[in-house]
Design goal:
Blueprint: H1 8-20, H2 23-57, H3 68-88, H4 95-105, H5 117-127, H6 135-152, H7 157-176, H8 179-190, H9 196-217, H10 236-265, H11 270-287, H12 296-303, H13 323-346, H14 354-375, H15 382-398, H16 401-411, H17 418-435, H18 440-448, H19 456-463, E1 477-478, H20 483-491, E2 497-501, E3 507-512, H21 513-516, E4 542-543, H22 548-558, E5 562-567, E6 570-576, H23 577-592
Parallel strand pairs: 1-2, 4-5
Antiparallel strand pairs: 2-3, 5-6
Helix pairs in contact: 2-5, 2-6, 2-7, 2-9, 3-5, 3-11, 4-6, 4-18, 5-6, 6-7, 7-8, 7-9, 8-9, 8-16, 10-13, 10-14, 10-15, 10-17, 11-13, 12-14, 13-14, 14-15, 15-16, 15-17, 16-17
């Protein structure tokens, strides 16, 4: 742990803590504190979004459309952009992706403003109708709370990473009232390699956050309709079909989301981006009002058997008794939801894809159930397929089947449908994995080479920094130097490799000791033979900005044990396999040590 000063109240407490409380015990205390603060943050965020949403929608007419569905989202995007640009002054959207980036590239340090800034921005975005969710926001908030509390108490990187996981677990546990899902989410999506020493703090945080939420908001679940019917084994094949559909849909969700955000991102002027993206979002929500906000009320209606309510507040209200119109409207919702989500985030809004993936999957599950029932082959319960579709699409989008099945089981009030949830989640995961290996959170980081993966080797390499393994004790030689000059350099060096540079310190080649061993003692050649006569050009060079995964790929492809490192074409030094392996072992022991 970092050395601390004994000045000030915090400093005196830290000194007292070091003397009186063992680190393992303090980690448990810290995890409980993270749970309390994260639970409170979740309650505040949920209420801010709910009451803002109600304030703007409670007076709208059910039997007709409203231009307010066009206007409100645009205002929300504009207010969010103003807040982020002039107050926060850095991007705060894509909360889970930012948490992954903090773990892999920022030594698990998250800026303190994330304790509250994304909550305010999400309230402006979602409360005014932005078609995103609050879950990624509260995950970033919880992770930030965990990171900054650990940093305040001068904990090391491993504990800070654990507290990020605790904050994320507490966030999911509190906002969904699903402690098991919170823990599993942390294991599947965020963490590298967890042991029992890490699971205990995670459980304390999740339970604490859940208890705080219970006392402040009651024991109600996300949906008012609770599942009590048991799974019918004869419906097994239909859940397989739903799983495949959800897997394909999740691939569409990931790719379309990223594609649209990239298209909107090409508009460099932020005010034009707000105007264009906000206007397009307004048009989409004006046509499909269930896309307004998180969309959980629409899912509640589907599970309660009130599918006709999907056409409330629309110009299609008069067709609510038409089965064909309902099918067409549901299909539109499934494929347009991801567009609305991408437009919200891409044009300046702040929110996550957690709720949108649940919405898309739930509506898709309802469509499958509806088509099965209309076919007359068999009657299935639509509410069951809504829940299974939610689990399936979330599993494919997030690449987290365990999180999906436990979350839906907990928010639906029981485990009566655990088998179909498991089946749909796993099949969706396998279906999507073949087409899209990364989750939507990890896709951007994977493109940039910043991804912290669950493959231990790759993850540890990600944690390693190239500039920490560059060796600079190689004696250099000029390209016009003679063999005699080179022998003098060799006599002062402990290495058997000599970089050859020009006047601008650019690498031209290398000379190996083995290549000059037979002539280096022939003094007749000292003034007649030049370094360039023995120089060879390296087949591969490494840029200082290359990721460690790229570096290892270059070693593998070249078969070399030492490769030169350049920065802006200037020679820096060499990196060796031996140095990387030694550093790898140290990082692995430090990160995975249970003690």
């Amino acid at each position: 742990m970092a050395e601390v000063s004994d000045k000030g109240l915090l400093g005196r407490f830290l000194v007292w803590r070091v003397r009186n409380i063992k680190e393992k015990q303090f980690i448990v205390i810290l995890s409980i504190l993270v749970g309390i603060v994260t639970g409170l943050a979740g309650v505040v965020l949920k209420n801010m979004v709910h009451y803002t949403h109600v304030f703007f929608t409670e007076r709208m007419q059910v039997d007709s459309g409203s231009l307010f569905f066009f206007v409100y989202p645009v205002i929300g995007i504009l207010l969010t952009t103003l807040f982020v640009k002039f107050f926060v002054k850095e991007g705060i959207s894509h909360g889970v992706t930012k948490v992954l980036y903090a773990i892999s590239r920022r030594n698990s340090m998250i800026k303190p403003h994330n304790n509250y800034s994304s909550m305010i921005a999400s309230t402006l975005t979602i409360g005014f109708g932005g078609s995103v969710g609050t879950e990624a926001t509260i995950v970033l908030t919880g992770a930030s709370i965990g990171s900054n509390l650990a940093r305040m108490f001068r904990m090391n990187y491993k504990v800070m990473t654990l507290m990020i996981g605790c904050g994320a677990a507490g966030a999911i546990a509190g906002i969904f009232k699903a402690p098991i899902a919170g823990i599993v989410f942390t294991l599947e999506v965020l963490m590298l390699d967890l042991t029992m020493a890490s699971l205990v703090p995670l459980m304390f945080t999740a339970i604490t956050s859940y208890v705080v939420t219970f006392f402040l908001m009651g024991d109600g679940f996300v949906f008012s309709y609770q599942i009590t019917d048991k799974f019918v084994m004869a419906n097994f094949p239909y859940y397989v079909i739903l799983g495949v559909f959800a897997g394909v849909l999740s691939v569409y969700f990931v790719r379309m989301n990223i594609r649209i955000e990239q298209l909107i991102g090409r508009v460099k002027n932020i005010w034009k981006r707000v105007a264009i993206g906000g206007a397009l979002l307004g048009v989409v929500i004006f046509i499909f009002p269930p896309l307004y906000g998180e969309g959980y009320s629409a899912l509640d209606d589907l599970m309660a058997g009130h599918s006709d309510k999907l056409l409330n507040n629309t110009y299609f209200f008069g067709f609510r008794d038409s089965t064909l119109m309902l099918i067409l409207f549901v299909v539109g919702l499934i494929f347009v939801k991801v567009i609305a989500t991408a437009l919200t985030n891409g044009s300046g809004g702040v929110g996550g894809v957690f709720a949108p993936s649940l919405f898309t999957g739930g509506v898709a599950g309802f469509l499958v159930a509806m088509l099965i029932n209309l076919s007359g082959i068999r009657h299935v319960e639509p509410s069951h397929f809504v829940l299974a579709g939610m689990a399936g699409t979330m599993s494919g989008v997030m690449k987290a089947p365990l999180t999906a099945m436990f979350l839906i089981a907990e928010i639906s009030g029981g485990y009566a449908l655990f088998l179909p949830l498991m089946l749909t989640s796993v099949i969706s995961y396998l279906t999507s994995q073949g087409m899209e290996p990364y989750s939507i959170y990890a896709r951007r980081l994977a493109i940039q080479g910043d991804l912290l993966t669950h493959n231990k080797d790759k993850a540890v390499l990600t944690l390693m920094k190239l500039n920490k393994v560059v060796e600079t004790d190689f004696k250099t030689i000029g390209v016009d130097a003679t063999l005699g000059d080179l022998v003098k350099v060799v006599s002062k060096s402990s290495r058997n490799l000599f970089p050859v540079l020009n006047d601008r310190q650019q690498l031209l080649g290398i000379v190996l000791l083995d290549d000059i061993r037979k002539v280096m003692f022939n003094q007749d050649m000292y003034s007649k033979t030049y370094v360039r006569d023995f120089m060879t050009t390296p087949s591969v060079v490494i840029d200082i900005n290359d990721s460690m995964e790229v570096v290892m790929k270059k070693f593998e492809d070249s078969g070399a044990w030492n490769l030169p490192v350049l920065q802006d074409h200037q020679y820096l030094g060499f990196v060796s396999k031996a140095k990387i392996f030694n550093t790898y072992r140290k990082v692995l022991i430090h990160f995975s040590d249970d003690e």
